[in-house]
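ok so heres the complex, two chains, lmk if somethin looks off
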Amino acid sequence: MSEESSMRKDSTSINDTMEEEVEERDPERNPLNEPLLKRNRTLSSNPLALVGAKVSYIESLDYEYLTGFLYFVGINFLLTFVAAILCVCFAPTAAGPGIPEIKAYLNGVDTPNMYGATTLFVKIIGSIGAVSAGLDLGKEGPLVHIGSCIASLLGQGGPDNYRIKWQWLRYFNNDRDRRDLITCGASSGVCAAFRAPVGGVLFALEEVATWWRSALLWRTFCSTAVVVVVLRATIELCHKGKCGLFGEGGLIMFDVSDVTVRYNVMDIIPVVIIGVLGGVLGSLYNYLLHKVLRVYNLINQKGKMYKLLLSLSVAVFTSVCQYGLPFLAKCTPCDPSFPDVCPTNGRSGNFKQFNCPDGHYNDLATLLLTTNDDAVRNIFSTNTPLEYQPSSILIFFALYCILGLITFGIAVPSGLFLPIILMGSGYGRLLGILMGPHTNIDQGLFAVLGAASLMAGSMRMTVSLCVIFLELTNNLLLLPITMIVLLIAKTVGDSFNPSIYEIILHLKGLPFMDANPEPWMRNLTVGELVDVKPAVVSFTGIEKVANIVNALRHTTHNGFPVMDGGVVPPTGVANEATELHGIILRAHLIQVLKKKWFLKEKRRTEEWEVREKFTWVELAEREGNIEDVAVTKEEMEMFVDLHPLTNTTPFTVLESMSVAKAMVLFRQVGLRHMLVVPKYQGSGEIKDYLYIFPEIQDAKDTRDKNRVSPVVGILTRQDLLPYNILAVFPHLEKSKRK
Amino acid sequence: MSEESSMRKDSTSINDTMEEEVEERDPERNPLNEPLLKRNRTLSSNPLALVGAKVSYIESLDYEYLTGFLYFVGINFLLTFVAAILCVCFAPTAAGPGIPEIKAYLNGVDTPNMYGATTLFVKIIGSIGAVSAGLDLGKEGPLVHIGSCIASLLGQGGPDNYRIKWQWLRYFNNDRDRRDLITCGASSGVCAAFRAPVGGVLFALEEVATWWRSALLWRTFCSTAVVVVVLRATIELCHKGKCGLFGEGGLIMFDVSDVTVRYNVMDIIPVVIIGVLGGVLGSLYNYLLHKVLRVYNLINQKGKMYKLLLSLSVAVFTSVCQYGLPFLAKCTPCDPSFPDVCPTNGRSGNFKQFNCPDGHYNDLATLLLTTNDDAVRNIFSTNTPLEYQPSSILIFFALYCILGLITFGIAVPSGLFLPIILMGSGYGRLLGILMGPHTNIDQGLFAVLGAASLMAGSMRMTVSLCVIFLELTNNLLLLPITMIVLLIAKTVGDSFNPSIYEIILHLKGLPFMDANPEPWMRNLTVGELVDVKPAVVSFTGIEKVANIVNALRHTTHNGFPVMDGGVVPPTGVANEATELHGIILRAHLIQVLKKKWFLKEKRRTEEWEVREKFTWVELAEREGNIEDVAVTKEEMEMFVDLHPLTNTTPFTVLESMSVAKAMVLFRQVGLRHMLVVPKYQGSGEIKDYLYIFPEIQDAKDTRDKNRVSPVVGILTRQDLLPYNILAVFPHLEKSKRK
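and the predicted structre for the whole thing:
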């Protein structure tokens, strides 16, 4: 015991002498401090210093730290509990960032319950809870999702069950405008999160959107302009600290513009090192996160209780580490040249005193016992080469690597940006300290570059990250270096694995369609692809109700070709020709059945008959279930004229078309169904076999024996996905490996 | 005379007293001044002051000003002459900015001789000449064109006649990579012009490119990163004034970051006014420039001499105005609080002394007798509310409005950015002076916002302009206001006329394909469109040489459908079916004829026969003229197997498809030919009528009488252009007007 005491004496002799002075002078000097922390500090600053003290004194101190610890962990636990219970019980889709699902939606894949009012509510409350709980997650992803939810709800006139049925709202009730609104919402979310209007637009462009039009560019720009004006006005209103921490730093969150960036040719070396390391670490992070998420999936599948427990244990672990680790750090004496107050207590900002004596600060507490935003601001701080000890930064980096891996998959709204920025800034600053003597670049800028490199290494964005970092840090002279770092990190990362969002998309099993077809797709024709599918289910222009009901009940198809037999084409003499009239949607067929728009005899209807029965708005609806439709036996024998409800201009491809080109068409034009037409022109006829159910195999055989039909098959998104094709044509996998 | 003298005395009394003092002290004080200007200044600073002096003295002074004037005009005349003669005689495509042509190229329209070595050379020398001549034009457009030329030349391995035939270069020898390279070149050009790497990428995205892929985003980003690194390194090398004016202002050209942007809610009013005025003025500029360009087109068509004379007269007019107008401005006394030297002589910068006495400067000379870049820098200068008199700014604005209209169309390389920035900054600063008492916003920022609003009002870009202005001015806090101004100006402008580049594209008659189809296109099917065209010219799979030669000679088509008659489809019993094999390109047919790959009998060839005859590189070539091909009479009776050279996966549409959707497909996928296939399926057969020439009308009649052919027609870009369709279907024009 005496040995330990003397050892401690050597290492913390300054602390001890300071301590005694403090005890006397403190009450007057720090009237604003929080009672708990104040007492901690005045009684003793270093837990190790307690070893030699009296036992009763020790116990009282232990008690103080324990109370603080319990408050800290307890409140964080409660906040996490609120966030998690909401997500688990009311809106499972609100967990996670939501960006992959939005990305998939804009690609044409709708996740159910993604943009509802419940999801919005849970996301807002849950995100507040999770961020306040000090978990290692950001509010960026959730804000993007919140923006998209609001956009979607506004566009459709309110929540699903309480929609306002204003006439003009129908103009937005189509896929394209819904997509545009959600894109605008997403860019507004990024803008609100980072106060980066241009970065928001570019994020939506580079990462989220699949189809981009010039009109969409200025629409998103317009929405971020509104966001930034509202933000600016709110910051002005909150100028005098009326709104807590909101608006700190004005429009620029992590301002590093006070440092004049000086670099010469030799500084290219550290820049390249940051880029390469960022790429390697980023892809390593992607790899490990993938593994962790797979384990979490297994746990989460076991039930709601497991989900909740997982979230809560992560929260407790985070709090324990955040409270406990700062005790490992040595106290640093305040330098009078620091521009800020030092040390600080009971408020946000740099130089937390925590367990240190007056005139000293605990650099690790400065980084851990604060909001994530402030942590970034602290670690980005420039012109402060001696503020952080390398060991503290190392602990910080290691902790956030672990937290960044285990926090993302829990059932609370969570963003990926901030965890990666925290990790990256830690490694960047560490690198800055190591390289200090060999470079002109400030440590704070090293932290910025480290964050940028890790982001690029994990998310693989370039332009949008560059602009977001420019708008976050307000240092235009840093731009050339940032660009190089981003490009190197992205290139290095791409050589290992796909981007984190692609990994999550794949994990979630969303049928996302990539921009570029796989090379082996050129060796397969759509004809071959259609041949292995069940026979196409089609209708004649005037169809029996029974056939329609059968087809809808026995298949899950969303589109059916409509053909007319025995037609005389206007230009020919082939009076036995079959006409491909178009494609009819399941939703419209269900509308017909629900409204019982049946005909007693086989006849073509007039336009006014259709207009009388169906409104514009009804046909725009895409809902309805065949199980809800009741058709009597007599009605089954009646007919429906499908012509007026058929889309007569379907996109088609010849059966000889390669799958690669078909996929380009499918994605570029944004299709749901694509008809495959024969490359042969012969006499064809339609037979009743086309809707004999459930004997599909027979129908297929019959088809093969017959003449050329005007439709060979129908392709959907699922048919064109690489892994679905490879499941049927395994030999292509081999050619891929070659 | 005595009256004039006394009037002058009143207005310039300070000048006169200053003058006398100066005359004695001058030689020591200004040893660095240029001889000519120095003498002007020492003898007398204000020409009006000469009126009352002795006649011989007047003559000597007049002589000085005259010499100065003659030097100024003469040198500018010579420089313009060099630029114009090069453009007129060697590369007419080098005149103008080149951006519309690049935009058209990326849309699929190739302008001949646009990316050659001669054009590049003329563009570089011409642009240097034109900019040095003090003409009211920028180097941005030319730099974009230069970037694209270099990219194109690098991609194809050098100039057309001296191409390096390296093997790996063939990888770039396809349309898509050429487009990508040219896009990268264009963004590098903007980056080099404005030192705005992100702005360059966004300019390429928003204004230039038609098809945008995620890969292209980081490729352009990579190229601008290289540009900015090279720029940065060069600026560093030139740091000590070794390279003249290059590198002034470092990486930020028009830095206004020294002013702290303060604004409150009421400042929204001037911002909205700037935006609306910018939109109105921008569209007015577009309207007037359109008229001027049409007049210039008439003049330029008369011959090379007229072109040259037009350019030279504009140059002389510009020089005369620039030298003469400053005499109208009053001299302003230097304020000791000015941060720069005042007055200045014989170097670039603010506060030109020109004809003023010591301690005074001529504010109009400061703006006119300088480079365009410096003029912008001067007028953007912040915290200098009294530097410019309103009358001087008004003269400046009026002059540059006139010059901006008359300079653009002359036969020298010219950009539109800088003229519009000059005009806009003038009107912005004028507005700032008028609104001075009512707003917190600095006059320099008013100038910046005015320039941005006029740019948006004329060019209708938003995001890219916003980023370019951010990178030009380095003031992130200005961003929210800039965004509002840009959006308002664009919206106001759009309600009057299309953007300036669209107007130029239309004037040049380039078949540019818009992103969105016209609404009336939905009421027309491609079947109707094909019906009014001459009958489709098609070949059978194994075709007679004579038919091919005939078809190539009598039509200008670039693609021909290939069909096989009497085929037995694998799935049917229709042994008289006709197969649509695909489409063959004119270039490949000419290759066949040139290489005389003829068969004595009708037979299918083997794969090795084709490989032996044609290489990969040869088939990628798109050149060749049917007139260069000589075929003997015997050869005419031989056959060619077209199957191996046919593209078997053409994009097709049903004849019932609407033109609007066909156009979307055509543009989104980036096609050159689109086959129209019948919606009917009947027995079809191929007849020899398909290539009876020149009796096309007969062929059409025959076709109509026959059965369904697997191809109804073929559509190209020209067929889908709105004005071409309206020429044939004038009734659609009426429905458009409704």
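quick notes: The mean pLDDT of chain A is 81. thats all i got rn
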